[in-house]
Structure formats: structure tokens, C-alpha cells
Design a protein that fits this description.
alpha/beta, 7-stranded mixed sheet, 6-stranded antiparallel sheet, 27 helices, about 45% helix, about 20% strand, globular
């Protein structure tokens, strides 16, 4: 970017309120020292994200931003510009409305290229509307739309569309009643290896597993049928099958999950078991009726991925030593808190794996049993027949277990039975949905549990979140911006020689700069002082302050430590823990 365009960028960022003059000067000095472009300096220093720069530049030149991950251009639109031309000009056609073609470009100041594309498409009687996208995003789109897996899947979609069997089923789905439609699907035919719809669904499931997705979302809308993968906690859109295949795909998924094909009015749950690369994979399936069809979500349960030791979960050595001592106690409750998807189950199973020896009897009560572990007795509750957490707990106490895992404490009855189990010589693990460790006592009190029971039974509370790890293939270091450090409550003078890290983005991490996740923790060990505060009904803030006096590190502080160790970024820590 030349000096004139850098001035435009600086002005745009200032006007958008994203960067102060002080930080612009710091970024200019950094870029000059490192020999990088001004905008790259901004990103490396952690001042702004690439998306912020893109949006600011687009607004300054009067363009819209193209979100290429959400674009699914028709084949005839892509063919308006050849692959060689698209690569040469770093431009890709993404949509056509009448005679107007939308083209995503990476450099809004390259007037020569825009003129060439205008002339090129003008020969096809097309008017051009330019949109702005990141260069890396365009490169990925070129691979997807011209040569990549998605191009091959698009070919598969076309083949399926031409298949008389699938088209016939889809047409019948439009016209027939629910009962006759369900009856018309030949189960034995769907199970044939050469059936196109089977191959398509298998391909989507396989690709999700290879992409390390934790969930697959099949989402019907009025005009599109969207498929998204959740990778490292962030949803990413996948090549969408044609809308007309929606019913056939959802029927196939429901059939595999053992659901009632005829029932589309109420939610259903099911399970799919398969093997990929000799790994046993389970999918927990949920179907939810929506306005334009059933939304189906598959949670991928990779048994091999969850059976970890404590050292793989994300504990620092000091934290691991503390937790190891806690889980070897003979009795008491150890609570793990955090929102859905924060890795609580993985940590619980890591703890059970550590203490799963022949001299201990371990029983779990879960809803549902997500992973099956050899040597552990696992009970799956079923509210429909009255097999609740409370009833299961009362019953398994007669089985004389040493260790009990309660999937979740969600009501007073379950909490009190778990506590009484802890007070009568059992070690109990369970989870709570709270934002931090000190709030656990307050939450139990709100459920109606008496404070003296909480104070006398809870050994420790561990709160956790998952943060994305920096991709090792494209990781690089940089000097942190003092103003960013101040935002985290850090003294820049103490970090003059420190380095932070982030990923540039590469094929290995799908150009996100991140690959995999690790956990950040805060561990509150129950002391006599904390017990007294609980007995006095003191608020969570006072409990937190006392726990910090006794050495507890907050989630955010643990995240900052992991950022300086090169495991994650300050941006990711701020995203997960919020700003202060």
C-alpha cells in the first residue's frame, strides 16, 4: 500500500473510532522497524483485527464487504471469469442479478485491475459491482470454487440432482402426506453403498471429522439449505447442498439416528455410530422443528479425543499438581463450572481416567452418556420413565461406589443427595452452570441448599473456558503494544522484553491463525475463611476477593499467562473472558 493509501487507511480507522492517533504512531514506528506494511503492523501489534481494517477501508471507498465464506455462487457465475484470470487479478465473481455481476477484489486502490475487469465483463454485456474481501479469503475461495473439495462436492450435488431415485423421492416429499412419505422411503435402498444420498451424507460427516469439527449444523431456510461446522468453537459455513435435497438428506440423518421419520412436529434425539480412519465416532443427534423444516444438529463425540490425561487438558504444571491432589481425596465434592461447550466433560473424564483403577468403584449418572469408558459403571437418566438424577443417585449409593460423577446439578434435590453422598465418604464430581468459581456457592444457595451443607462438603470449585490455540505452522512473535497491555491491567514496564505470538494464517489452520483449543482455569480451594463466608451468606464478590487473597488466579489471568507462553493470543483471551 503506497503512502497515499496508507493515509486513507489511517483516516478511515480514526473516523471509525478503532484506533487512536497515539496507536497509529506506534504502529508506524513498529512497521518501519520490522520492515512490514503499516496495516500488517497494526495486526501484528494486536491493535486491530484484519476484519476491522477491511470494513474501515470499504467504508472509506464506498464499497461493501464480501463475506466469501457465506457465498455460494452458481456455476455460470464462476465461469464468467476463468481461474487464471481470477488468480491473476485476485478477484472472484460471487453473484449475478440481471446484468449486474458482483466481483470481490482485494485491493480497492488498484484502478487498473478494476478497469480491466470492467472491460472483460462488459464484453459479456455485464455491469460490474466491486466488493472488498481479504486477499487470503479470495485465495481460499479460488481453491473452493475452482479446484477444491467443495468443487468436487458441487459435482456430487449435480450428480445427485440428476439421479432419478433421489429426484423422485424429493418430489414425493412435496406432494405426499407425512405418513405416505415415510412409507415411501425404502430403508434397504438407502443402505446401499452406491446410493448418491448415502455417499453425500457420508462425505459431509467424514469431512467434518477431518476438519476437527465438534458440531455439524443442518439448517433449513426459505431458499437455502445451510450446512455449518463448528471448529474450535467457531461456526464456519460448508458447501450447501441444493435446497431440493433438504428433505432427502434430513430423512437420511433421522434414519441413521433411529428417529421417527414421520414425526416432524416435536423435537427428537438420536445417536449415530460410525468409524473414520479406524476411530470409533459417535454423533449425538437432535432434530428441532423450524419454520422451513427441521434443523438437525450433530454433536461429534470422538472417544479418542476425550480420553485424555490431565496433562493434555491444558493445566499448567502447578494447576495440575493441585487438581491431582484434589481428585485423590477420599470424599467431598469437586465442582466444575462453565457454560455449555467449555470443556467440562473433557476435564471430568480426564479426572476419572486418572483415578480409574481396579481398587475403586466409579459410577456416573449422565444425561446422556456421551462417552463410554471401560471399567466405569455409567447410568443414563431417562426423565420419560422417571429415571431422574435424584432417583439414580439414591439408588447407586446402595452400590457402594467410591467415586460418583453426577453429570449436572440442576435442582435442590439432586444437589442435596450429592452433598450427603460426599458427607458419607464418597468423592463426588459434578458440574454447574456459573460464570466463575466463587459463584458456585451462591448458585447452590439459590437452589435451596443450606449453606452449612455447602461449606462442609465442597472441597474445590474449578471454573474453565476453552480458548483457541495458535497454529504452530504459521506462528510468529511480536512485541506487545503497551496500550494493549494496559487494557489487560498489566504494567508495560514489566513486559519490555516480553513477546506475544499469533498465527499468520495458512493451509494447516484454514487461514484462521488458530488450530485446536486448550483450557484456561481458575481453581478455588475451600478454606476455613471461605467456609465462614458461605455460612454468613456473603455475596460471590466477597468470596472471590478472599479466594484471590489466598492465591486463586482468575480465568483472564490464566489466559494472559498462556498468551505469553505462546499458546493463545490476548485477542482470544479477551473474546472468551470479556473486557474489563
Amino acid at each position: 500500500m503506497d503512502h497515499k493509501n496508507e493515509r486513507i487507511l489511517r483516516n478511515a480507522l480514526e473516523e471509525a473510532g478503532l484506533v487512536s492517533r497515539e496507536r497509529i504512531v506506534a504502529a508506524e514506528q513498529y512497521a518501519q522497524e520490522k520492515g512490514v506494511a503499516f496495516e500488517e503492523g497494526l495486526v501484528q501489534m494486536g491493535i486491530v483485527e484484519p476484519a476491522d481494517i477491511l470494513q474501515a477501508v470499504a467504508e472509506s471507498v464506498g464499497m461493501k464487504v464480501a463475506h466469501l465464506s457465506e457465498c455460494r455462487p452458481e456455476k455460470e457465475v464462476i465461469e464468467l471469469i476463468s481461474k487464471d484470470q481470477a488468480a491473476k487479478y485476485s478477484a472472484i465473481p460471487i453473484a449475478r442479478n440481471g446484468n449486474t455481476v458482483q466481483v470481490a477484489i482485494s485491493d480497492p486502490f488498484d484502478v487498473e485491475t478494476m478497469d480491466l475487469l470492467t472491460v472483460l465483463l462488459g464484453e459479456l454485456q455485464c455491469r460490474v459491482e466491486f466488493l472488498l474481501a481479504e486477499r487470503e479469503s479470495i485465495e481460499r475461495a479460488l481453491e473452493r470454487f475452482y479446484t477444491g473439495d467443495e468443487a468436487r462436492l458441487e459435482e456430487m450435488f449435480r450428480n445427485i440432482t440428476q439421479s432419478e431415485d433421489i429426484v423422485r423421492i424429493s418430489e414425493e416429499m412435496k406432494d405426499e402426506s407425512i405418513q405416505s412419505l415415510a412409507a415411501s422411503i425404502d430403508e434397504s435402498k438407502l443402505e446401499q453403498d452406491d446410493s448418491p444420498i448415502i455417499r453425500l451424507v457420508d462425505k459431509i460427516l467424514e469431512q467434518a471429522i477431518r476438519a476437527r469439527a465438534s458440531d455439524i449444523h443442518f439448517e433449513p431456510f426459505e431458499k437455502i439449505f445451510r450446512v455449518r461446522f463448528r471448529i474450535d468453537g467457531v461456526c464456519q459455513e460448508f458447501e450447501a447442498p441444493p435446497k431440493r435435497l433438504q428433505a432427502a438428506i434430513l430423512s437420511r440423518l433421522k434414519l441413521l439416528a433411529g428417529m421417527d421419520l414421520a414425526e416432524k412436529r416435536i423435537p427428537q434425539d438420536g445417536r449415530i455410530q460410525t468409524k473414520v480412519d479406524e476411530r470409533a465416532i459417535d454423533f449425538r443427534v437432535n432434530a428441532l422443528p423450524g419454520l422451513f423444516g427441521e434443523s438437525v444438529v450433530l454433536r461429534i463425540l470422538d472417544k479418542g479425543a476425550v480420553l485424555l490425561g490431565l496433562e493434555q487438558v491444558g493445566f499448567a504444571q502447578e494447576q495440575q499438581d493441585i487438581f491431582q491432589k484434589l481428585i485423590l481425596k477420599p470424599n467431598g465434592i469437586i465442582l466444575i463450572t462453565g457454560p455449555t461447550g467449555s470443556g467440562k466433560t473433557t476435564t471430568l473424564y480426564a479426572a476419572l481416567n486418572t483415578i480409574n483403577t481396579v481398587d475403586r468403584k466409579i459410577i456416573t449418572v449422565e444425561n446422556p452418556v456421551e462417552y463410554r469408558i471401560e471399567g466405569i459403571n455409567q447410568v443414563q437418566i431417562n426423565d420419560d420413565i422417571g429415571l431422574t438424577f435424584a432417583l439414580s443417585l439414591r439408588t447407586i449409593l446402595r452400590q457402594a461406589p467410591n467415586v460418583i460423577l453426577v453429570g449436572e446439578i440442576r435442582d435442590q434435590e439432586t444437589a442435596e443427595i450429592a452433598i450427603r453422598a460426599a458427607l458419607t465418604g464418597h468423592l463426588v464430581f459434578s458440574t454447574l452452570h456459573t460464570n466463575d468459581a466463587p459463584s458456585a456457592a451462591t448458585r447452590l444457595t439459590e437452589m435451596g441448599v443450606k449453606p452449612f451443607l455447602i461449606a462442609s462438603s465442597v472441597q474445590a470449585v474449578l471454573a474453565q473456558r476453552l480458548v483457541r490455540k495458535i497454529c504452530k505452522e504459521c506462528k510468529y512473535s511480536y512485541k506487545p503494544d503497551p496500550l494493549v497491555l494496559e487494557d489487560f491491567g498489566l504494567d508495560p514496564a514489566q513486559y519490555e522484553d516480553a513477546l506475544l505470538y499469533q498465527g499468520r494464517g495458512c493451509d494447516n489452520c484454514n487461514y484462521s491463525g488458530y488450530k485446536g483449543r486448550t483450557a484456561i482455569f481458575e481453581i478455588m480451594i475451600m478454606s476455613e475463611e471461605l467456609q465462614n463466608l458461605i455460612l454468613e451468606h456473603r455475596p460471590a464478590e466477597e468470596i472471590r476477593d478472599k479466594a484471590r487473597e489466598q492465591g486463586m488466579s482468575l480465568l483472564r489471568e490464566d489466559g494472559v499467562i498462556k498468551a505469553f507462553r505462546g499458546e493463545t493470543t490476548l485477542t482470544e483471551v479477551a473474546r472468551i473472558t470479556g473486557t474489563k
